[in-house]
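Notes from the 1:1 (GR / supervisor)

We went over the backlog. Supervisor wanted to see one worked example end to end before approving the batch request, so GR pasted a single chain during the call. The sequence is below; no edits were made to it. Supervisor asked that the structure be written out right there so they could see what the output format looks like.
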Amino acid sequence: MKRINYLSKITRIVFAFISIVSVASAQNKSEERVTMLVTFNVNADQREAFKNALIADRKGAANEKGNISMELYEHKDKPNTFYLFERWVNKKYLDEHFTKKYTKDVLELNKTALTTPMEILYLNDISPLPKNELKNPLSTDAPVDLVVIFKVKDGMQNTFIKQFEKSIVNSRPESGNVEFFFHTLPGDNTKFVLYERWRNQAALDFHFAQPYTKELFEMFKATLEKPVEEYLNFITEIGYSKRADK
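Structure output shown during the call:
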């Protein structure tokens, strides 16, 4: 009987420990930074209304305590495609953002203005930067931006990530670089997202000429499902204005 009681006590302790770990894990997850790429494909006749709603959403988010950054773009070759690239301190602040009128206005327009459902990609930043280390374009810049959504052959993921880890270390210190962020996608280990911002076209051309960038393009030949050119999306920030130099 004593042995049974002892085993029962041990079992209760184990389950209590598991519960504590599970709660702590959930709490840690809720405190993690949230990074999102949201894509909207809009009906041509509702383009301006939707664009204005997105601008209002971005402006509102900039004043929210939990927002690290929110950037709004349109595709250079597809004028009815828009992107929101967002970073939030944690999920709690993102949930609060969805309660704001300007965000609800965008969600309401989604019902009638889109040709396809909006796509939200929740991203895991391989090498995140704190808010105070994020750079802005200089007042003299003519920024060049691109977002790349890669599809990688199964089995080549580690090769892909390691090469990009090297590229991050070398690319960010370039004088012409503003942002260089590489992301994995939870739930899909064959898809990766790259976001780059350069001060001007000359800065991007310089980057493409560097040995570590050439290594990337060689690696693409063996790892990507399709030629890299099919994944490139050159984008233009909407509402870009001259900012304090940093």
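Supervisor's comment: The chain is about 40% helix and 25% strand.
Batch request approved.
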